Amino acid sequence: MSVQFELYTRTGCHLCEEMEHEILSLESRLTFTTNIITINNKKHLEQRYGDKVPVLAYKDTIICTYVLNQDALKKAIKQYS
What domains are there in the chain, each with its CATH number? Predict the structure, then answer.
């Protein structure tokens, strides 16, 4: 069973677009899936993540923000598999 991460993004955010592209290109190679969640107009998510986006998380644990940290991602895959 592969690990499923959440990627919190905001529409029009270039960092979000970059991280989404990187994440999607790594999914099959590193055996994980990603649920992409746009926080626009979702008050509880905007309050929680605000200007930290993009945010890659596993449940309530933040893996990385702003840019993809591949080492942190690989560590999380091992930890949560």
Answer: 3-80 (3.40.30.10)
